[in-house]
Structure formats: structure tokens, C-alpha cells
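Suppose you are handed a protein chain with no further information: no name, no annotation, nothing but its sequence. What can you learn? This example shows the usual starting point.
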Amino acid sequence: MFSSKQLKSTSIIAAFGIAAIAVQSARPALASPGVTITDLTTLGGSLSVGYGVNDGGQVAGYSNLADRTFHAFLYSAGALNDLGTLGGKSSKAVGINAGGSVVGYSTTTANATHATLWSAGAATDLGTLGGSFSEAYAINSAGQIAGYASTADGFAHAFLYNGGVMQDLGAAGGMDSYAYAINASGQVAGGFDGVDAAGNFYEHAYIYTNGVTKDIGTLGGDYSEADGLNACGQATGYSSNAAGDSHAFFYNKGKLYDVGVLTTGGYSVGVGINDYGAIVGYAPVADGSLHAIGYAYGYLVDLNSTLPANSGWTLTSAYAINNKFQITGVGIHNGATHAFLLTPHS
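A reasonable first move is to predict its three-dimensional structure. Written in C-alpha cells, the prediction is:
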């Protein structure tokens, strides 16, 4: 007979499809009925990171090359594709939509960093808000893009890019603002900086909807940031609590819920959320090393806790989860730091 905690643990393992792990790469796969973990390898260097995954299992991220520069990649149909740059040396991809369009940022021939859209084999410079730099973090199926850019007066402002126009979303706190997520209806989530009446600096998470920026508050502390947003308007990110500790949160219907931590005195960060409210991110364990985490049904789990001893993997951070519960992020695989794609069989 299961205790309530065991039932929750069983449910979250089923939700993430991590009853057992098989390794799919150039190496022989481990037999398993539960999940496949795929090593996305690299573009010739030693490092790769997966940041976004769509429901088709395509992954956006970045990898270093043999010359140690970084390039954005699109993983699709079993192949890692170099997306190139805007003419400069480096680029990174962060978000992807259902159609396989990818966003991130790249250096230009003038060595400036600009928000970039990769679509149909072409890289498009999205420009700035009058300043020198911009970065894009998320794209929805309608092609709307969220990110942030410098303004002519030197501030960073969140933007919503739509139909070829970069719209300045302003800064509710009067200073800087950042956008990290966008959902199907064009809602944007991120964080903004401000100074209160007493002169104290703060950073608060927000959700922007149809011209209105809503401060979604904190877990009791003075800062928060939203990094993931789903179609239901639920969000995740991190926030300080009344004790000053930083914890991942789940935002739903106007309230922030504390996701918790893996070890006493530790912290946690929520990064990705799917339309079922399942969250992924990362948190330190007792020895201080980072582990990928998953949160669903009110229960937090170390995603490494279900890996077999001979998988060769330690999952250090999870950055995105799709509606099929596929997860991407970065881990250490037989000593190499590589992007992974975790795919449940059911």
C-alpha cells in the first residue's frame, strides 16, 4: 500500500515518463520500456546546451565548434544543424516554435549582439530599440517573438516583435525590463527592475497581456523573475522568500506557489513549463553540484533519481519541456558536457 508521498512520487515519475532510461547515441542503447535519453552531441567542439523543444521533438540550443566559438543549432530528425550567425563569430539559440522557427541572438559583422530569427534556412536580424544590442528568447506559433533590447538612452527594455515591428513594452519599475517567454495568445513574461519609495532596489516578475503589465509579486522577498509561460497563463521562474532564500515558483490564477528545494539551505530555479503545468529547472544537491529538477502534482523530484547506474549521465539543468513531456537541457555524459533530449515512451 502506498503512502500519499509515494503516490505523488509515482505520479510525477509517470508524468515525466522516467520509469527507466535508455541511452540513444552513437553508443549502444540500454534496453528500457520507459524513456530514451538522446545525446545531441556537438558541432565539433566539447560543449552543447539544449534550451528549447517543440512538440515535434526539435531542439534549439548552442554548441561550440572546434575553434571554440559558439553557434546556434537546430536538432531535427536526428541531426544537429549549424544555424550560423549574422556575419559575426558567434550565435546562440534559445527558443523554438511548433514550425521549427528558432530565435536567439548572434554577433553581426560589426561585432554587435542582435536578436535573431532563423527560419526557412535564413537568419534575420531583428534590430534593436535604438541602442546597440538585443536578444530574443521565445517565439510562438504565430511568429511573435519576445526578448529585450537596449534603448537609445541606454536602458534595456522588454520587446514584443510582431509583423516585422519591435514593440517596446516599457519598464513598469522605471528602469530595465526583460522578456523571456511568450505563449500562443501573445502574453509575455519576464522581469522588471525598480526602486521603491524608500529607495530600495527590487526586481519583480510580470506577465504582459494586451498592453497591460501585471506585477505577479514574490514569495515574500524582494525579487522574482518569470522565465517560462504556458498557454494557460501559468508561469514559472524564481523568487526570494521572506527568509531571503531563492526558490522556484509555480504561478497559477494570481498566486505564486513555492516549488521548494532539493537540499536544506539550497535554492531552485524554474525555467520551462508545459501546458499541463509541469515545470523543469535546476537546483543544487547536498554536495553543491547542480541537478535537473522536475515539478508536477505538487511534488518536486531530482530527475537524476531515476537514472540507472550505468546510463553514463548526470543531468545538471533542464531548460524546456514540451506537451509530450520531452525535456531538453544539459548534462554530463561519460565526462562530456552535452545537450540532451529526454523522450518518454508513453
